[in-house]
Amino acid sequence: MASLHNRVNRKELREKMRNSTEERMTISFYRYAKIDNPQAFRDDLYRQWEKLGVMGRTYVAYEGINAQISLPKANFEQFRTELYQISFLNGCRLNIAIDDDGKSFFKLTIKLREQIVADGIDDPTFNPADTGVHLNAKDFNEKLEADNIILVDMRNFYESEVGHFKGAITPEVENFRESLPIIADMLAENKDKTMLMYCTGGIRCEKASAYMKHRGFENVFQLEGGIIEYTRQCRNLGVPNKFLGKNFVFDERLSERISDDIIAKCHQCGTTCDTHHNCSNVACNTLFIQCPECAAKYEGTCSTECQEIIHLPAEQFEEIKRHPKEGKNKRIFARKMA
């Protein structure tokens, strides 16, 4: 029986992906649906996708599927045909990456989860199916110009820092589950206003819009397909694109360029910059924004402390890797302006 998990060294896989000349494309999709046997569904999917050269990260739960993947362009039609043969996925929207060289993932991972998007909601009266009204790019733009609206970015701080819609509320949160009650409480006195929300590909807004309605917001609207589909519709239909900067993505690319605007700053020197890096001290691995000058100065690390660590003797470095400083390997949440 073939292995249903990748067993090859991560470093080797990453190098293979980076050196490959194969034309690939990056796709994301999701669907909320009842899956009676997530394990069996997951295993069947792995067998099918492995044959097609699919790589990426996918979560499967009783409530549905959330996938961010890449695959050879030559296999796209077969992939879509086979995917649509799965009854609850027939016709689901495939968000095709905007700024993409296909080198977004280096292995195939399909994991079982309690939820495809962890929401932290523990309320039996909450109805996740009671979502807001979905808007296409044209209608979303029209709503942006209306009076008495509030525009909310349902993504994390490090995502909205490099790109967002002008005038959007960008909560200082690091994960989706903590953002829901924070935003609801923050805007509790604005329930008479029209709420517009958006996220990367639409999946977070499915639950967020339902939660806001659950908390008493009556006029809730969400951007259909998120920033990815909005950008595609703007390009195809000649609709003005009102998103500024980059769209953060959770793969090797880290971002897609949507507009030429650079709205963020280097966390180390403060110069205009919107390029994310992971600290080259792998015991830290902090995600932060770093300009080319600081990348050279600090050797790709997020601090002088980490710069010193990468030059330690191998045995000392291995000890640090085994016992990283508490919290140091988490994403930077506050700007580290010099």
Protein described:
There is one protein chain. The protein has 338 residues and is an alpha/beta fold. Among the domains are: 103 residues, Alpha-Beta Plaits (2-Layer Sandwich); 105 residues, Rhodanese-like domain (Oxidized Rhodanese, domain 1, 3-Layer(aba) Sandwich), CATH 3.40.250.10. Helix content is 30%, strand content 20%. It has eleven helices and 14 strands. A five-stranded mixed sheet has the order 4-1-3-2-5, with helices on one face. Strands 6-10-9-7 form a four-stranded parallel sheet. A hairpin with an 8-residue loop joins strand 13 and strand 14. The C terminus is likely disordered.
Helix content: 25-40%
Using the alpha-carbon principal axes, give the shape.
globular
The Cα radius of gyration reads 21 Å
CATH class identity of the domain at 133-237: Alpha Beta
Kindly identify the CATH topology of the domain at 133-237: Oxidized Rhodanese, domain 1
Please name the fourth-level CATH homologous superfamily of the domain at 133-237: Rhodanese-like domain
Q: How many angstroms separate the termini?
A: 56 Å
Spans of at least 5 consecutive residues whose pLDDT stays below 50 are 326-338
Task: Give the number of DSSP strands.
Answer: 14
The secondary-structure element order is HEHEEHEEEHEHEHEHEHEEEEHHH
Estimated structural class: alpha/beta
Overall average residue pLDDT: 90
What attributes does this structure have?
338 residues, Alpha-Beta Plaits, Oxidized Rhodanese, domain 1, 5-stranded mixed sheet, 11 helices, 14 strands
